[in-house]
Design brief:
Blueprint (H helix, E strand, L loop, with lengths): L19 H10 L6 E2 L3 E7 L5 E12 L2 E6 L8 E6 L4 E13 L2 E7 L9
Antiparallel strand pairs: 1-3, 2-3, 2-5, 3-4, 4-7, 5-6, 6-7
Amino acid sequence: MSLESPLLPTDPVNRESTGPSDDAEHGASRRMYERFPIDTQLQICWEESKGVRRQIRVRTVDASKFGVQVEAQRSIPTGTLVNVFTANFTPIGRASVRHCTPKGMDYRIGLYMPDRFVDDL
């Protein structure tokens, strides 16, 4: 087995592109774990500064071995530790917000959950 990854170009300057979709497809192939589409509701709870507790309902977009991407109506700051529950408040685990990106009127939020597996959702 080679130490060089076949998924990453060794010379990005001379990399041939077959079109715009080539870059999107190539970027997706750099992920360490495959994403699985999931459409379910979750509850996310966290504590902000001065002890203010927040809770929102989110829609799961996809999941991988160690993470979940969700859509929410409000943003959550990157680095925030959150508790994740099913829609019926069954605990799934803790997560760290890795990114929060505007998408239309909502936000796409990437949650890193190293102790969670897709089966938990």
